[in-house]
Specification:
three-stranded antiparallel β-sheet, globular, single chain, disordered C terminus, alpha+beta, disordered N terminus, Transferase(Phosphotransferase), domain 1, Phosphorylase Kinase, domain 1, 13% strand
Length: 371
């Protein structure tokens, strides 16, 4: 498969730099960073491409961060599902631990929406994408340990940035770095809120989380995939927290766009219920409810190839500028942009130029007469 120009440019820019190694893996390019680690594209001895998540130098000196990183490695190594990014190995280079992970050549849902100018995805594509995430999430929620007991995994950081779609159309949930599980050695301090502010559930603000917390974040991602707009899009973290605390339910989407089928609002209201007891019974129940809306809509299910085409057209500038298409962004009244102001008339440049020429001619005549 052809490597996209974005990735190719990244490699041309950074491969010449000596980024070092992590064990047997040669670091090719730094492609991301988070609060605890940085992500590299790397190459193994056989030329295979992987992603390396390496603990930041400042975090490597803090036993708490080291413990959290090892917790992530311990948990992620158990996860084997088509919709969850795989972790192959854990290593250590000097005093810094690193994870060797599956490399996904594609875009995050966040990047997809950004590159589309924050226009939402067509309903069938958005439904398929989010349903795939729900499948991986349901697997994680139901996973049991060696003793046969549920691990009690809660991701706690589901957001468009952590949902990746590969060029092959595979959808992957990534980054269990903030996940809660029974196997954790480093426990969350009471009152400490983990996760991105714009994707927190109301109960998360009080430090209470369970699998239903992830369902709320899934509802937020579905809403954003459809509208291109973040539901809790506020200017500051304090305003975002206030918006979550005073949240009464999502705006109605049915009727705002003819492509939105009946029943979708019901799915969103359930997943975004302020009371966790009002949400779906599981991630699989959420997926099933979304699937029923697709079936009743008559639009038909979307194939993995359709997601692959979406990513390739959005990701690869070699395909030329995107073709014009009808806007698919849904703008409910609560999120509607301000109406455009009155059109500005263009200055009459030809008349101005003629006036300037006449003025210059009169000035020349005046100088000649004076001499």
């Amino acid at each position: 498969m052809r490597v996209g120009r974005f990735l190719a440019d990244t490699l041309r820019t950074h491969v010449s730099e000596d980024l070092g190694r992590c064990g047997v893996y040669r670091l090719l390019a730094r492609i991301g960073a988070g609060g605890m680690g940085e992500i590299f594209l790397a190459e193994g001895p056989g030329g295979d491409r992987v992603a390396i998540k390496r603990l930041l130098a400042e975090c490597a000196r803090d036993p708490v961060f080291v413990g959290m990183f090892l917790d992530e490695a311990r948990l992620a190594s158990r996860l084997e599902h088509p919709n969850v990014c795989r972790v192959h190995d854990l290593g250590r280079e000097g005093d810094r631990y690193y994870l060797v992970m599956e490399h996904i050549d594609g875009l995050s849902l966040k990047e997809l929406l950004e590159r589309r100018g924050y226009r939402g995805l067509p309903f069938p594509l958005a439904a398929r994408l989010i349903a795939e995430v729900a499948s991986g999430l349901d697997y994680a929620h139901r996973l049991r340990g060696d003793d046969g007991q549920p691990l009690g995994i809660v991701h706690r950081d589901i957001s468009p940035a952590n949902i990746l779609v590969g060029r092959d159309g595979q959808v992957k949930l990534v980054d269990f770095g903030l996940a809660k599980a029974r196997t954790q050695l480093v426990k969350t301090q009471p009152g400490l809120v983990k996760g991105k502010f714009g994707y927190l559930a109301p109960e998360q603000l009080a430090g209470r989380v369970d699998w239903r917390t992830d369902l709320f974040a899934m509802g937020l991602c579905l809403y954003e995939a459809l509208t291109g707009q973040q539901l809790f899009d506020q200017r500051t973290a304090a305003e975002t927290v206030t918006a979550i605390r005073t949240f009464g339910g999502p705006p109605r989407l049915e009727g705002t766009d003819p492509s939105i089928p009946a029943g979708l609002d019901e799915v969103l209201r359930a997943s975004l219920s302020v009371d966790p007891r009002g949400r779906h019974e599981s991630a699989s129940a959420f997926r099933a409810a979304l699937g029923e809306v697709v079936v009743r809509s008559g639009t038909g299910s979307v194939s993995q190839a359709s997601l692959a085409e979406l990513v390739q057209q959005t990701h690869d500038p070699l395909d030329g500028p995107p073709r014009p298409e009808a806007p698919t962004t849904l703008r409910p009244p609560a999120l509607a942009s301000s109406p455009p102001g009155p059109a500005r008339s263009s200055p009459p440049w030809p008349l101005l130029a003629l006036g300037a020429a006449l003025a210059l001619g009169l000035l020349v005549v005046a100088v000649l007469l004076a001499t």
